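> Could you send the N5-carboxyaminoimidazole ribonucleotide mutase prediction when you get a chance?

Sure thing. Input:
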Amino acid sequence: MGDIKVGIIMGSQSDWPTMKEAADILDQLAIPYEAKIVSAHRTPDRLWEYGKTAVDNGLHVIIAGAGGAAHLPGMMASKTRVPVIGVPVQTRALSGVDSLYSILQMPRGFPVATMAIGAAGAANAGLMAAGILALQDMALAERLDTWRQSLSDSIPQEPSDD
Ligand code: RP5
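Output:
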């Protein structure tokens, strides 16, 4: 697996438009990652294998997104000590509140760092992963600081009608 320290996993192809927001952030910050479909319900053996090998494969952070009965992030956190950042994917039936509660309410001992519902949460998951990796990577820390500064700089002082 080489230099890949971030794994982005998601329960379904249908989660990719959301999870791509995390990938886009990692691309902007030149952080290599892998993206895989790993479903807690449809491919449980794949989930188990991914969790079992995560440390040996050199992963430092796993970003896990799922919708509805979103067990993927929690199950992954139960299988590996690699920190798991959970992204609740927005659903049609319950607007992602189902995903949020499924990911957030972990029992003591097996934490998932839960982000906001949907695209903003996925982007923030990428930034959270970057912040964790930047603790031990000064070049990345500088790229992240620059990214944050340019976001701040892009915010106008006053509102406009356009
Ligand atoms: C979950 O079920 C996935 O994470 C996805 O958000 C949701 C719906 O999946 P599809 O029916 O679109 O494949 O497992």
